[in-house]
Design goal:
The protein is an alpha/beta fold. It has five helices and four strands.
Length: about 160
């Protein structure tokens, strides 16, 4: 009957603002594994966050009713830099320096989790979908994330890729 009891279900993607300005999705290489070194790691990180955000936007589109209301809220957030022990495998000479930098300039996991809890449970965002928060600030994602044709193609190519495995 379409009547919902209780709060609207929510899906939250944890992403990064580094997606801003990443190169467009390369459909010729989509689904192909490439061995790459540390030099390409940051550009790949940004590129795949752009892909993640595009996918989230497409999922939000697909979970929105014809009247514009979401059947399920799909939102994206960037917690900002988090002191998550990511540098644990750094060379020993660099590790001490990195720990200091991370402690000074990066957020604790507890602080970084606050916008996660907000988007998952707050009444203020009830019914919002395709909403993007960058460290608790509402913001637009890179325009490429909103490209409907790219979103639909990403959905189809992802689905097709799953069929191969």
């Amino acid at each position: 009957n379409g009547v919902r009891n209780g709060p609207l279900p929510r899906i939250l993607f944890i992403s990064s603002d580094s997606h801003q300005g990443a190169s467009a999705i390369d459909w010729e290489e989509f689904g192909t594994y490439f061995d790459y070194g540390i030099n390409k790691a940051m550009s790949n990180y940004s590129y795949y966050k752009l892909m993640l955000n595009t996918y989230a936007t497409e999922l939000a589109r697909r979970l929105t009713r014809s009247d514009g209301s979401p059947d399920v809220s799909v939102n994206v957030m960037c917690p900002g830099p988090v002191n998550s022990n990511i540098a644990r495998d750094a060379p020993p000479l660099l590790l001490g320096f990195m720990k200091i930098i991370f402690r000074i300039f990066f957020r604790s996991p507890a602080v970084a989790a606050r916008p996660v809890a907000y988007l998952c449970a707050s009444a203020e965002v009830e019914g919002k979908t395709n909403y993007y928060l960058h460290m608790f600030n509402e913001k637009q994602m890179d325009p490429k994330c909103y490209d409907e044709a790219a979103g639909a193609l990403l959905w189809k190519r992802s689905y097709d890729l799953l069929g191969l495995h």
